[in-house]
Every structure is written in structure tokens, then in C-alpha cells.
TrEMBL record, chain A:
UniProtKB keywords: Glycoprotein, Membrane, Notch signaling pathway, Signal, Transmembrane, Transmembrane helix
Lineage: Eukaryota, Metazoa, Chordata, Craniata, Vertebrata
Transmembrane segments: 624-644
Alphabetized Gene3D superfamilies for the sequence: Zn peptidases
Residues in Nicastrin small lobe domain copies: 17-177
Family: Belongs to the nicastrin family.
Name assigned to this protein: Nicastrin
GO cellular component: plasma membrane
UniProt source species: Oryzias melastigma
Domain of life: Eukaryota
BP-aspect Gene Ontology terms: Notch receptor processing; Notch signaling pathway; protein processing
Automatic annotation (TrEMBL), chain B:
Keywords per UniProt: Membrane, Notch signaling pathway, Transmembrane, Transmembrane helix
One GO BP: protein processing
Entry's Gene Ontology cellular component terms: gamma-secretase complex
Protein family: Belongs to the APH-1 family.
Pfam families: Aph-1 (PF06105)
Chief localization: membrane
Lipid bilayer topology: Multi-pass membrane protein
Protein name: Gamma-secretase subunit APH-1
Domain of life of the native organism: Eukaryota
Record-linked InterPro entries: Aph-1
Compartments where found: Membrane
TM regions (residue ranges): 6-25, 32-59, 71-90, 117-139, 159-179, 186-206, 212-230
């Protein structure tokens, strides 16, 4: 389809704005970087709407366009048909550098990527402010029409200026918010704003978490005798454009690995003496919204467990295996100096877990800080032993970090096109097999860390078909028969063609969006058990109509179930699990500290319809001529009519009107 | 940006009509009423003809372009005939109303003559016809673009506006001639008015060749204007009198009781 647009997000400065009625500009297909001169200086018909082919969508060109934005009405970026081989990352080169644990007071030599530049390909254009709309289109028939319109009407041949009428384009993506979050939230206050619905919303969604042993969630704060191993990962990502953020390596691999690990551990956790807490954080891309909120809640005794209950943390980061099948265990050099922080046990448990599997684990041989990870937010509060599993030793191996190219193609999920969707769902690709090894490692590592015995470890095995189906669901097609069975029955019809990963904002309060809900449904089905109760009892969250106690411990989900053969009816059933949601809204908005340096302050602007259209524009002279002729006709007719009507009795006097005519 | 084109085309299309309204009709409440009633009659005729056309399109073969073109021609002819029928109906109504008004009013003279009624009703027809012809086009002309991305001429707005101006003035002239012919029972004149109306409407089938449409239309407009002028009581002598500004002296010195 035609257009995507960039959404306006505000933490400090980054935004994109457009005028209320849409920006109109004469089309210009940029042929090379030198051709920019036409747009910025010499072209006779500004403002221009610049069409950028994918090879020209680079930081230098965008910066030049930004500086010449009085002559630029907008940019249309054409998506390439396959990922650019040199890589592309619009994110910053040091992600989340101001909200991590490393600062002037904690490991100052490690702060601001002094030791390792995590995302060296990062250009930072996602965080620049543009005064014109930037849209992205696929390279399909509609784009061909746009190019042809340019070729026929706008192309300057041999230095001659193109003649009117010229082909022009209008892009509409009005953003209501301005300046920064503090200003925007102030304008949200009902007494001030003209737009009664507000101009921007804080970025927020839901974290999904589950425990392996029942925990009473109505009693918050410290729980005696409970020792928790946190297994964390993130479930969101972003890109330069709205709606195309698949986040395959950056989020989906870790997410799928942890879900598969949870499924593998499902039957083995009863005898463990520590509880494993699976946490799927939302909003980590935007300065750790989800994890900072959970840590904040724990510190304030507003969560089921608190920070003293945490024994250790294992985080699963980007785990797409490269050709050498190596994974790296990153840990924090500063807290390791503290003798009470025992990272070695965790590392050796993980090494043991990987024994006999088709991958190798190692620790980086450089003393370097933790990569950007949710674990850093926990370290801000307490020195807790923890490890982050990644597929890179120093800088990211992901060439497309937080861009729209971090997709199924990058992970080499190659489904032959002649297969039906159902056959593709069943196909187990090599990447899925590799990820299964990772999931098994994570599961066994968690088992050992939670007190399991080494001898029992080998019966824990992740299912490669499950991993393959989850990868297919998250990265290729949501609408498939496997996921259909797991989904809540009152939630069908909401799922769209392709998965979006971008964390979404609330309207007025935080609502849970599709990625988090999907994870919740899958996790509930994988770690829960089927409860043989009616739909009514399931919706009311009790086992039978008299029981009331377990509402705070278990959660109940009425699931759609499989289709009965030869019918369209489904065998729905109730799943009882320990999966819960927790609010992922930055503490800065709870405390109304919109300029906080400690917490994420990202907010998203309200926007109206996003669309674009092309048409011809006439020359200014012709329009003024039309107006002149119109005014001339009006004045002439006024004059003539006045003259004729004042002389009417003379002009029409030879009348054959018989009597008493009044004129 | 093309608010310029919007206003330009509006002034072209409705300029003469607004001028006429302002200077000759706006001060007299009775004329205003008959103007609006005339517009309403035209509207009803359009409603009927569009109903017939709509039904016939629904039952026709939507794929065949030739059939659709034929239906369009049929629709135009039917609409013209219905408009003229309603003009005749309005004439009849006005005759009856005039008698009634005379009996009701205190004065001895008729408050409004049939000739004025002819002019006012013709203008009413013209206003409504012009509005329906051109308002959609004006609304589109206010947007940022112009016609032509599929290869059509970019003078569409301008020529539509000129055509509308011609139609409004033509309706006014036809009103004058038609009513006068009905008064004198001059049926060939009535028939000729209908035929000319048909010719002008069918001229538009030559669009987008705008010259072939506009030039004949303006020639006919000029011809009708002359005919209506003579019907309304004008003559070459009166024009000469006006132009040489001898009118007042002439009247005083050659005063004759009428």
C-alpha cells in the first residue's frame, strides 16, 4: 500500500511536523547527491517534494534537506525490495546512553560508550527534528505512477526549466504536539488546550510477567522466604517510520527464545527451591520505560516481590546465531568487584547448560560495560548478579538495529513462496533450529540457577516446532492456525496482517496493545494448565462458583481453541496460569516530572489522518489571471447593469404593454 | 493556493447574475419572492429528470460505454424538455397569481407586470441552473491542484465558469421571450426557444473541445440577447437616444400621453 509516515515522538527534541492542511510540493526525483543543488538552490519552483531512492536515504542528504527546509515540502522514501547489504541503522550509536547505569557516579570510564561503541552503524536520524513530513512507500505500481508523473511533467531536459503544469504531491501528517514533552503535557491540561482531547500522550503499554510458583499479587512488597531468578527480555522495537518495526534480531529472537524456554521448563519447576520470574519488558527502546517502571514499583513496595527477593538476573538480548554459533555472556565490571555479587556461579551454570548443544558460550575478553539492557535499571538500585546473553562480543553484529530492515529476511527465515501459509507454518527453518538451541540453553541455565540438579538437566529441551511457529507468527504472518487456537476468544478480528512491534501509546490511560497481548496469550498457554470450568467461571476468575480466594494468584483466560473438523465451531477452553500484566508507564509521568533525567520522558504527539496524493499544479500566473478575469467580469457587469437599469425606462419604452406598466 | 482560481471562477460564473440581482431585484420584495419561486420550479424539474435518468441507468447495462453515452444524451434531452415544461407551468401559475394579487391589493395597478415576471423567473431559473452546473467544480477548484494528470486540458475550470455564465444569461433571455410568446399565443416562438435550449445543451457534448462549445454558445447568447431586447420593448432608436444622452430633453419635448 502507499504510505507510511513518521510519528512524532518527544523526549527532548526529536520530532517531525507538518502543516494542518498538508504540505504541497512540486515532485523532484533526486538522482544523486549533486542533484540536491536543484532542490536547495537553483530549482525555479520551490517548495519541492523530494523522492529519495533507497540508496540516497542517508544521513548527509537528510541533514542537507533539513537545513534547506524552506524549499523542501516533504520527502518520499522508496523502500528497497531487499535489505541493503551495507547495513542501515537510524538509531543512535550509543543507545539509551543517558538512562543506563553508567554515569559520572557509577563506572564513569564506561559511560557514553567510551569503551565500546555498541551501534557503530547508527546515524541517529531517528532522533533529529524535521520540519516536513517524511513518508515511506513500497516500490510497487503506485510508486511507478509517481515516477512516471515526474518524468512526464517535471523533468528538466538539458538545462531548460520545466513548464507548468507540473506534477505535485501533497502529504498530510499533521502532528498536534510541539517543542518537547514538558510543554506538550502542560498543554494537555484541560483548562488550557483548545483541542479537548489533548495534544500528546505519554508513551506507555504493559509489561508481561509470569512466575513459576504461585505468588499472591494482592500483597505487595517483600515476601519472606521467596528467592527469585529473573529471566528478562524486551518485546518492543522501533524504526524511522511508523508501523514498520519488525525488530527481528533486536527483540523477536530474545522473546521467542524465552517463551520457548518457559515452555520447556513448564513441568520441571515444581521441585526447584527458587522461583523463576519471566519478565517481558515493553518500551525498552525508549529509555527503558518498562524496566524502569518495574524497578520503581519494586523499590516502592508496589510489586509482588521487591528488590531484596531477587537472587540473580538473566537477560536474553539479541540471540540470532551467526555462522560461528557463538553467544557471549556480558556482565557488569563495576558490581563484580563487590564480593557479595556472585556472577561466576551464573556463568558456570550457563556454560554447563550449553554442554552438548550446537553452540558455544563465552565471556568477552575485553573489560567492557554491559550492552544496553534492562538489567542496567536493576543495577541502578542494587548490585545484583546478572548476565546478559548476546550474539555480539563487542559492537552489535546486527547491521539493521532498530530499522525496518531488521526483519525475517535478515534472520534468513526463507520460506519457499510456493508453499501455502499452513505449510510455511509447519516448516522448521535452520534459523529456528539454531534458536531452539539457544532456548534450550536458557532453559537449562535457569533450571540450574534456580537450584535444579545437573543430572536432571538433560530432560529439559525446547521444541523446535514451537520455536518455528512463534517466529512465523511474530515475523511473517500473525493470522495463522497455530496462533488462532491460543488467542482469547473475544479478541479475534483485531489481529492485522503483519506484526507491529512498536510500543504504542495510551489514549488517555495506558492500554495494552497487540504485541504485549500476543505474548500474554502465548505465555499463558505455554506455562498454564487447562482448567475444566465453564466460560462464566473462567471470566469471573474462579474454579467454581463458590471459590474466591485464588483471584489474586492465578489468572484465567478463555481461549478460542482449535476448529472442530468439518465445522466452523471451536472447542474453546479455559487456561489457568500465573501470567500477569504490569503497567509500563515511565515513573516520570507518575511523578509529573516531565524533565526528569532519571526516567524516560518520551511522549507521542496526537495525529490525524496520514495520507498523500499527487496531482498537477498550475502556474501562479495562470491563477492570478483567472482571478483578474473574474474580478474584471464582475466589475464590468456591475457597471453595465447599473447603466442599463438607470436608463431602463428609456431603453424599454416602446413597449406594447397595454396599461399602467410599472418599470 | 488556488483560492485565486476559486474566486476567479465564481466571479466569472455568477458575476452578471449577481449584478443583475443587486441592482434590479434586491430592492423589491415581490421580485425576490418570484425569483426564488422560479428557482424552485427549475429545481423540481431537475429532480424529476434526474429520477428518470437514475432509474434508467440502474436498469441499463453498466458495462457498455455506447449505451451509457446514449443514456446521457437521452437524459440531457429529457431534462431540457422538462425544464421548458416547468417554465410553461410557472407561467400559468403566475398568470393565476397575478389575478389573485390584483383582487387582494388595494391599488388599481398590478404590482408587477408580466414582463417583469418573465425577467425575474428567467433569472431564477438561471441562478439555480448555474449553481448546479458549477458549484461542485468550484469546490474542487479550491484545492491545491488543477485538472490534467490524466491528460485532460487544464482550462476546465475556466471554461466551465464561462459556460455557466452563458447559461444563466440565456435562461434569463429565454424567460423573457417565452413568456412574451405565451402571452401572444405565438407558439412557434415557444418552440424555437425549446430548440435553442436543446442546441446549447447538446453543444456541451463536444467538451473537452472547449472552443467548439464556448464560441457557438456565446454567439447564441448574443442572438438571444438581441431577440429578448426587442421583445422587452427595446429598439435601436432607444439605444441611440441613451448613448447620445438626449433622453431627458427628448422626453420633455416630445411628451405624449401613453
Amino acid at each position: 500500500e502507499i504510505t507510511d509516515g513518521e510519528s512524532g515522538e518527544y523526549g527532548d527534541v526529536f520530532c517531525i511536523s507538518a502543516s494542518l492542511s498538508g504540505d504541497v510540493g512540486v515532485l523532484h526525483l533526486l538522482e544523486s547527491e549533486e542533484n540536491l543543488d536543484w532542490v536547495l538552490r537553483t530549482g525555479p519552483n520551490p517548495p519541492y517534494m523530494v523522492i529519495l531512492e533507497s540508496t540516497l536515504f542517508t544521513r548527509p542528504i537528510l541533514m542537507k534537506l533539513k537545513n534547506g527546509s524552506s524549499r523542501v515540502a516533504g520527502v518520499l522514501a522508496v523502500q528497497p525490495t531487499s535489505n541493503p547489504p551495507e547495513g542501515f541503522s537510524p538509531h543512535t550509536s550509543c543507545p539509551n546512553e543517558n538512562t543506563g547505569v553508567y554515569s559520572e557516579t557509577y563506572g564513569p570510564s564506561y559511560a557514553h560508550c567510551n569503551v565500546t561503541m555498541w551501534n557503530p552503524l547508527g546515524t541517529g536520524i531517528s532522533y533529529e527534528e524535521f520540519d516536513f513530513p517524511i513518508f515511506s512507500v513500497k516500490d510497487d505500481n503506485d510508486t511507478e505512477v509517481i515516477r512516471r508523473c515526474y518524468m512526464e511533467h517535471n523533468r528538466a531536459v538539458n538545462g531548460s526549466t520545466p513548464q507548468y503544469p507540473l506534477c505535485a504531491m501533497q502529504l498530510m501528517s499533521h502532528m498536534a504536539a510541539v517543542t518537547d514533552t514538558a510543554t506538550c503535557m502542560r498543554r494537555n491540561a484541560p483548562t488550557f488546550s483548545l483541542a479537548p482531547d489533548g495534544v500528546c500522550d505519554p508513551l506507555g503499554d504493559a509489561n508481561i510477567w509470569a512466575s513459576t510458583k504461585p505468588l499472591n499479587s494482592s500483597t505487595k512488597g517483600h515476601k519472606d522466604g521467596v528467592s527469585v531468578v529473573i529471566a528478562a527480555t524486551k518485546l518492543d522495537s522501533r524504526s524511522f517510520f511508523f508501523d514498520v518495526a519488525p525488530g527481528a534480531d533486536s527483540a523477536a529472537t530474545g522473546l521467542v527464545a524465552l517463551l520457548a524456554a518457559a515452555s520447556a521448563l513448564h513441568n520441571a519447576t515444581a521441585e526447584l527451591n527458587r522461583t523463576i520470574l519471566y519478565t517481558f519488558f515493553n518500551g525498552e527502546t525508549f529509555d527503558y520505560i518498562g524496566s524502569s517502571r518495574m524497578v520503581y514499583d519494586m523499590a516502592k513496595n508496589d510489586f509482588t516481590v521487591d528488590l531484596d527477593n531477587i537472587h540473580s538476573i538473566l537477560e536474553v538480548g539479541q540471540v540470532a546465531l551467526g555462522p560461528d554459533s557463538r553467544l557471549w555472556l556480558h556482565s557488569d565490571p563495576v558490581s563484580k568487584r563487590n564480593s557479595s555479587v556472585n556472577v561466576e556461579t551464573l556463568v558456570s551454570n550457563l556454560q554447563a547448560a550449553a554442554a552438548g548443544l550446537n553452540l558455544s558460550l563465552g565471556e568477552p575478553n575485553v573489560t567492557q560495560p554491559l550492552p544496553p539492557s534492562s538489567f542496567q535499571r536493576f543495577l541502578l538500585e542494587r548490585p545484583i548478579p546478572g548476565v546478559v546473553i548476546e550474539n555480539h562480543q563487542t559492537s552489535f553484529t546486527n547491521k539493521y538495529y532498530q530499522s525496518m530492515f531488521d526483519n525475517a529476511e535478515y534472520l534468513k527465515l526463507n520460506y519457499p513462496p510456493n508453499l501455502t501459509p499452513e505449510e510455511q507454518l509447519e516448516l522448521v527453518t535452520d534459523s529456528a533450529k539454531a534458536l531452539t538451541e539457544v532456548a534450550t540453553t536458557v532453559a537449562r541455565g535457569l533450571y540450574l540457577q534456580a537450584g535444579g540438579e545437573l543430572a536432571q538437566m538433560s530432560r529439559i529441551q525446547a521444541d523446535s516446532e514451537l520455536v518455528s511457529k512463534m517466529l512465523y507468527t511474530f515475523l511473517v504472518r500473525v493470522n495463522n492456525s497455530w496462533f488462532d487456537q491460543l488467542v482469547k476468544s473475544d479478541w479475534t478480528g483485531v489481529l492485522s496482517e503483519l506484526m507491529l512491534y512498536e510500543i504504542n501509546t495510551s489514549e488517555r490511560k495506558v492500554k495494552t496493545t497487540e504485541p504485549a497481548l500476543m505474548v500474554q496469550c502465548i505465555l499463558a498457554n505455554l506455562t498454564g494448565s487447562i482448567a475444566n470450568i465453564t466460560e462464566g467461571n473462567c471470566q469471573d476468575k474462579k474454579m467454581d462458583k463458590d471459590e474466591n480466594m485464588n483471584k489474586d494468584i492465578y489468572s484465567y483466560l478463555w481461549v478460542q481453541g482449535p476448529v472442530r473438523p468439518n465445522s466452523t465451531e471451536r472447542d474453546s477452553f479455559c487456561v489457568r496460569s500465573l501470567v500477569r500484566q504490569s503497567k509500563a508507564l515511565s515513573p516520570a509521568f507518575e511523578l509529573s516530572e516531565y524533565t526528569s533525567k532519571n526516567y524516560s520522558t518520551w511522549a507521542e504527539s496526537r495525529w490525524s489522518a496520514i495520507k498523500g496524493r499527487i496531482f498537477l499544479v498550475a502556474s501562479h500566473d495562470l491563477e492570478m489571471l483567472t482571478l483578474g478575469v473574474g474580478v474584471g467580469v464582475l466589475l464590468m457587469s456591475l457597471l453595465l447593469t447599473y447603466i442599463v437599469s438607470s436608463k431602463a425606462d428609456i431603453l424599454f419604452s416602446s413597449g406594447r404593454e397595454p396599461t399602467n406598466a410599472t418599470y | 493556493m488556488t483560492a485565486a482560481v476559486f474566486f476567479g471562477c465564481t466571479f466569472i460564473a455568477f458575476g452578471p447574475a449577481i449584478a443583475l440581482f443587486l441592482f434590479t431585484i434586491a430592492r423589491e420584495p415581490l421580485r425576490v419572492i418570484f425569483l426564488i419561486a422560479g428557482a424552485f420550479f427549475w429545481l423540481v424539474s431537475l429532480l424529476l429528470s434526474s429520477l428518470v435518468w437514475f432509474i434508467s441507468v440502474q436498469i441499463s447495462n453498466k458495462e457498455s460505454a455506447a449505451q451509457q453515452k446514449g443514456l446521457l444524451i437521452f437524459g440531457v434531452v429529457l431534462s431540457v424538455l422538462l425544464q421548458e415544461t416547468f417554465r410553461f407551468g410557472y407561467y400559468k401559475l403566475l398568470k393565476k397569481a397575478n389575478e389573485g394579487l390584483l383582487t387582494l391589493s388595494q391599488e388599481e395597478t398590478m404590482p408587477i407586470s408580466i414582463r417583469q415576471l418573465a425577467y425575474v423567473s428567467g433569472l431564477g431559473f438561471g441562478f439555480m441552473s448555474g449553481a448546479f452546473s458549477v458549484v461542485n467544480i468550484l469546490a474542487d477548484s479550491a484545492g491545491p491542484g488543477t485538472v490534467g494528470i490524466h491528460g485532460d486540458s487544464q482550462h476546465y475550470f475556466l471554461s466551465s465558469a464561462f459556460m455557466t455564465m452563458a447559461i444563466i444569461l440565456l435562461h434569463m433571455f429565454w424567460g423573457v421571450v417565452f413568456f412574451d410568446a405565451c402571452e401572444k399565443r405565438c407558439w412557434w416562438a415557444v418552440g424555437l426557444v425549446v430548440v435553442i435550449h436543446l442546441v446549447v445543451s447538446c453543444l456541451t457534448f463536444q467538451n473537452p473541445d472547449y472552443t467548439a462549445t464556448l464560441v457557438p454558445a456565446y454567439v447564441i447568447l448574443f442572438g438571444m440577447g438581441v431577440w429578448a431586447f426587442y421583445t422587452a420593448g427595446g429598439s435601436l432608436r432607444n439605444i441611440k437616444l441613451c448613448l447620445t444622452c438626449k433622453d431627458k430633453d427628448f422626453l420633455l419635448s416630445n411628451h405624449r400621453p401613453r
